[in-house]
Amino acid sequence: MITIENLGLAPRLHPISCQLNGSQLVGIIGPNGAGKSTLLSLLAGQLSATQGRVAFGGDNWLEASALRRRQSLSFMPQQPHADGALTVAAVLQVGLVNLSLSTAVTAEIARVTELLALQPLLQRTMASLSGGEQRRVHLARALLGDLPWLVLDEPIASLDIHYQLQMMELLRAQARTGKLVMVALHDLSLAARFCDTLLLLDQGVLRAVGEPAQVLSDENLAAAFRIQARWLCTEQGVGWLPQLLQDTD
Ligand SMILES: Nc1ncnc2c1ncn2[C@@H]1O[C@H](COP(=O)(O)OP(=O)(O)OP(=O)(O)O)[C@@H](O)[C@H]1O
């Protein structure tokens, strides 16, 4: 479990507080510029907070050593980078070595390779891959070491619908193994369908946190996104028909 207390970065993110249990897939949603990446980057230690604390495993996570951070939290930024000249296999090897874990390298790389169906790509260079293929490699890299806290900024951006569904299932399965999995998402229908908890950010403010049905209320959708939506619930899942509000441009 993590407890976020008044975590903020002026002027981009107003102080936010919430508690998130492990074993959950948590979606961070909100319009462009709402502060999603800022929040995730603060948790990942890529940005320094101007105030607040984060309790994770007892102490203030924001003051944890670099090694503890590296071995507890896996971060995939919105625009992950890897040297284009490296093969996929090399990217995964370097990623694992950087974690300084005692994990068996070959077995761990085989594990994430299988999870992301990367076998056919292992000997290709990163530069030779499509955008979606590269994203799957970055996702595999984020899963290396089986760390307890995954923080992924738009992990399904640029994936086709097959891989979007597969990734959301995979991330939910990762959460079910006891991890806290936090993902920034723009697809609210997939967020509603797969996430246990949603955090809705709007103009740097935490507007709502809770179960998807509560957070994706008519009022919140209108205020944050200036849309209205009809939700379609079937046994297979949730879909929706979003529309611009009448009085918006
Ligand atoms: N490097 C930066 N320096 C100053 N302000 C920034 C910087 N990066 C982002 N911002 C601002 O911080 C606010 C939050 O940005 P952030 O990237 O966290 O939004 P986001 O919700 O992730 O948006 P998007 O959906 O467009 O990715 C925005 O107003 C943005 O303009």
UniProtKB/TrEMBL annotation:
PROSITE patterns, per database record: ABC_TRANSPORTER_2
Pfam family, any one: ABC_tran
Keyword vocabulary terms for this entry: ATP-binding, Nucleotide-binding, Translocase, Transport
Signal peptide from the UniProt entry: none
InterPro entries according to UniProt: AAA+_ATPase, ABC_transporter-like_ATP-bd, P-loop_NTPase
Domain ABC transporter: 2-228
CDD domains linked: ABC_Iron-Siderophores_B12_Hemin
GO molecular function, one term: ATP binding
PANTHER family from the UniProt entry: HEMIN IMPORT ATP-BINDING PROTEIN HMUV
Name this protein carries in UniProt: ABC transporter domain-containing protein
